[in-house]
Amino acid sequence: MINFIGRSREYNDHLEGEVPKDLERLVHRLRWPIYLESTPNIHLACYFGEKNYANPRAQFPYDMPHPGLDIQANQGTPILLPTTGRIVKCKVDKIGGLTVGVYDEENNLAYVFAHLDARQPPCELIEDTHTKWNSPYFLEAGKPIGKIGKWNYELPDFVNIPGEVLAIYGREFHHVHFEIMYINPRQKKPRFIEGVDTLNPLLLLQKLKY
Fold first, then answer.
1. Global confidence as pTM
2. H or E segment and range at residue 166
């Protein structure tokens, strides 16, 4: 039984979008980046293509459509890798906490996990903003890549928080931001992992019945 709360119940309304032909075999096949059955009070707070949940009044460039899925859970919740991959980016900043980028060469996918606990990096920090596509750091599918870190800001008063979410989390927003990108094997790999043919994660993650 999955303990979904709040906006998570809109899950079926957000199974939209397309995937490249190369990825059709992976539709609804990938592991979720969280232990669904054993994690309490999972809140899918912001879906792909929406306004920024944490600050819907944000101005450019932060008013761009949301490129991933924000999964709210308790601070310290383990975050898992959907497939075996190469860690190609590790960066720490004030807003994002620890951001980790992983390249799955077999499936031509890249994953970005943001707002992880910076005290538990999965590799030596790669501070260069360029993506290290040939990094030697590998991680097996289903292994924790980190834990949800502390979100240092409370949600503004004008953010509409579902009642049951407010009762559990208040205005805190500890979460993981999860993106999936398609890295076209017929093109040169980009210098930066972000913003490259970003896909709706719900199209590739295992389809849920709850």
1. 0.94
2. helix 163-169
